Amino acid sequence: HGCTLATAHARLDAGLDAAIGSGERLILLVAGRAPRAAASRLDLPMRGIIRASIGDWLAASRHASDIAAIRPAHPRHGGAGALYLVMRRR
């Protein structure tokens, strides 16, 4: 993906701006996960650092009040590397 933490955070914020502005009610957020080879090592987390940061980013976001729920995505939509963001009605 080529994103640093700062770039990923900025892209998440911009994506939420666009989705909220267009009235989206459900957002599929695909963050990815750590490569299997890396995740199988005992000293590395089982998920990528960006994926691990998303919960904190969303909770502290200026968009937090617009998010009604966060749910894990179905395996066809990214599974452990993705989330559904259910947005509040306006």
Summing up helix and strand content along with how strands pair, one would put the structural category as alpha+beta
CATH architecture: 2-Layer Sandwich
Helix content: 25-40%
Order of helices and strands: HEHHEE
Strand content: 15-25%
CATH topology heading: Ribosomal Protein S8, Chain: A, domain 1
Write down the CATH class.
Alpha Beta
Distance linking N and C termini: 33 Å
Salient structural properties:
90 residues; alpha+beta; Ribosomal Protein S8, Chain: A, domain 1; 3 helices; 19% strand
Describe the structure.
The protein is an alpha+beta fold and 90 residues long. It has a single domain, classed as Ribosomal Protein S8, Chain: A, domain 1 (2-Layer Sandwich). 37% of the residues lie in helices and 19% in strands. The protein contains 3 helices and 3 strands. A 3-stranded antiparallel beta sheet has the order 1-3-2, with no helix packed on it. The N and C termini lie far apart (33 Å). The mean pLDDT is 87.
Layout of strands and helices, then pairs:
Elements: H1 5-21, E1 26-30, H2 36-39, H3 49-60, E2 67-72, E3 82-87
Antiparallel strand pairs: 1-3, 2-3
Write a compact overview of the structure shown:
The protein has a single domain, classed as Ribosomal Protein S8, Chain: A, domain 1. Helix content is 37%, strand content 19%. It is built from three helices and three strands, in the order H-E-H-H-E-E.
